[in-house]
Amino acid sequence: MPFRDEFDFAEDSESRPGRFRAREDQADDPRMPAFFIGVVAQITGAHPQTLRNYERIGLLRPGRSSGDVRMYSRRDVERVRTIRRLTQDLGVNLAGVEVILNLTEKLEVMQRHYDQKFDDMERRHRTEINRLKTILRKLTG
User: Fold this and answer.
1) Do residues 69 and 16 share a domain?
2) Is the pTM of this model over 0.70?
């Protein structure tokens, strides 16, 4: 889901505060709002009203253009596909979908944190191994 604080927002007099304005360096970001609701409906097979309902109950948080038009990202499209897979293929109700998506997001955050800690630990170990090798070379050489 696109989190509004991760993007550049127009705050000038020409546009409304808090509205999305893309920067060139965000073009390949999967969280970058890029699709209108009709396009997302076509891609996912969900009715536009269903997408609005998902937003209303908090399952989706699409970005908004300066004209207050919903703009969905590639990540939003994948989220809609996941919601539809859970509800249609697995019979999960929307309350269950919300729990599953929230837990999945928490697991992803934990995994990133774990990966970062592991990388830091590995880097420290390599540094210590190199330090010990240097000492060993001095002692034996």
Assistant:
1) yes
2) no
